[in-house]
Amino acid sequence: MIVLDHAIPELEIDLHSLEMLGIGLVSINEKTYNIIFRKGITHSILKTIIRLYKNKIIQKQEGKLIELLGTYTVYIHFFKVEREIVTLFYINEKDNLIKYDDLCLLSNKILKVFSANVPISKINTICNKIVPPISGISAMFIIGSAGHSYFKKINEDQKFLSENYIQIGGFISAITAFSQEVICKQSGENLKAINFDNQQFYMNVKEDVIFAFLINNKVEERNLKRYIELLAEEFLDLHRERISKFNGDLGPFNEFEAIVDKYFII
Q1: With a threshold of 0.90, does the pTM exceed it?
Q2: How far apart are CA 47 and CA 24, in angstroms?
Q3: The pLDDT value given to residue 1
Q4: For labeling, which of 2, 47, 137, 211 is most exposed (least CB within 10 Å)?
């Protein structure tokens, strides 16, 4: 028996024309919703958008919406799949135009991949050109205020950092505590960076957790600070309770590497 393949070839999508702030993939029904994947959008903003448009999405079942929300444009594409409505939320700066036909093609492609039950990493690969990760990061450390290194990811070329990450974590914790005690009490500011010849340690402190990044000075800063804020939020959302009851077990933090890989190439 001869089987002919009548599949329609996929149209080429100019993904570079679709670069935007963020994307969220959400499954919605009348009772609840499930955030399947998000990148470039804080959890709080995505929850707000879902709350604003959930009823309209459920009422229409399938369709497309374009809405202005403050300084953002929100594109919403939703599809009825069995008992759920699979919804894609795209967020962009209000004044940045995109090729809308390409965005529609992209939504169909993501829906097809999602329906095939492939790993979420596949969706992230598709989205890498829409919300591109940043390269030029030598290492990142997530450290408790007492100097515990909850998580690290170090470029394989940085052998010294890999061999001395415990001491480095202690150093970052100590200098952050020193700056808060001596400098910040007077100025009201927090220590943000330690500059070297061609690199800097950039630090972000949230809820007594230090997020430190060793960054090449040539890294483009367009999305850098926003990604660092997003990463801190995602880590605390996942591990806030575990940190408050920390017992020395670092195993559960290792899964955070998949989220780091969404935003940074290390």
Answers
A1: no
A2: 10
A3: 34
A4: 2
